Amino acid sequence: MRDVYNFSAGPATLPESILLQLQEELLNYQGLGYSMLEMNHRAPEFFAIIDHAKATLKELMHIPDNYSIVFLQGGSSLQFAMIPMNFAKGKRVAYVDTGFWSAKAIEEAKILNDTLVVASSKDDNYRFTPKGFEVPSDCAYLHITTNSTSEGTMFKELPDTGGVPLIGDACSNILGFEYNVEDFAMIYAGAQKNAGVAGVTVAIIRNDMLHDVEGLPHILDYKQHIQANSVYNTSPTFGIYVTSLVLDWIKQAGGVEGIAKRNELKSSTLYDYIDASTFYHNYVVVEDRSTMNVVFTTDDDHLDQAFIDQAWDKGLINLAGHRSAKGMRVSLYNAMPMEGVTALIDFMDSFAKENCVTL
Ligand SMILES: *Cc1c(COP(=O)(O)O)cnc(C)c1O
User: Which terminus in the chain has less CB density within 10 A, N or C?
Assistant: First the structure.
C-alpha cells in the first residue's frame, strides 16, 4: 500500500493492482523473455494487445460497428488541430466554450477555418454548461468539451445539434460517465486521466465522417491511422498496453455503469460536505457540477495555499487548482478510491477547525 492519495488532474492516479502487475512483468513480459517496453510495434503480441484493447473498449462503451477505434499520439491537443483538418470540409465549424480546454480547441480551429462560437459561459466565469442554443445547419460539426477539467463543470445532457455532427473532447470523463456513443460523430480523450498514461489518445470516430482531404499529410489523416490499425508509425506501445489493462480493470469494476456510479458517490459526498460548510465554497451551478473534477476555495488565497501545502504533507497531493484558476481542485478520476475522498474530508474538517471556523 502506498501512503498518498494523488488528486492530480493528469497524468493521474492509476489502480494499484495495475502498477504492481507492471512492476512484476517489467523484465519479462508474459514469459517472452523481454520487457513490454522493448516490444516491437509490429509484433503479433502487440497486435493482440491492440485488438484486445479495442474489443474491451467497444464492449465497455457499447460502440456500434459503424465506428472506428484508433490510438494516436499528440494528446487531446493534437486532436484540436486534426479535427478541423479532417472534418471541416470547407465549411464553418462550431464550438461551445466552457473554459480553458475548449478555448484551446477554438484557438486551433480559428487558425484553420471559419469558426463560430455558438455558446459560451465565459461571462459567468464558466460556472455552467450552456443549454438551449442553436447550431447553424451549415456547420460541419459542433465541438464540446464534455467535462471541463479546470472549471469543474460537465455536460450531463448533450446539446441538441439539429443533426450537425457532435464531437466531444472527453479527456477528463471518458469511461467515467455514461454517454451514448451514437450521440457523437467522434469522441476522444488523452488516456492520462481516466484510461492509462500520457502518450496515448483514444479516438472513436463514426465511419461516415472519414473522407479524402486534399493536401492533408498522412500523419494527420485519421483514415491512415485507422487503416493501419493504430500502427501507421511506431505506436506508443507501452501506453497502449497500460490502456488495455485499465480497460480490463474497468470491466472488473462493473463497467462504465459501475464506475460512473462510484464517481457520482465520490463527488456527491464531497459536494455535500462543501455545501454543508461555511468555510469552503464551490460556485458551479449545481446541476452542471462535474463528477470528475471538484473545485473549491476558502475565498482567501493565503488559506487556499496553506490548505494545499498542509494537505500535501498529509499525503493528499496535487490539490492545487488549474494554473488558469485559483483555489483547489480535486480530481476524482476512475482510479481514485472512495477512501481518498474520506481522507480528504477528514483533513478538510481539521483544517477548517484549526482555522477557527465553526462549521
Ligand atoms: C487534459 C485535457 C486536455 C489536454 O490534453 P493533452 O493530452 O495535454 O493534449 C484537453 N482537453 C481536456 C478536456 C483535458 O482535460
Answer: N
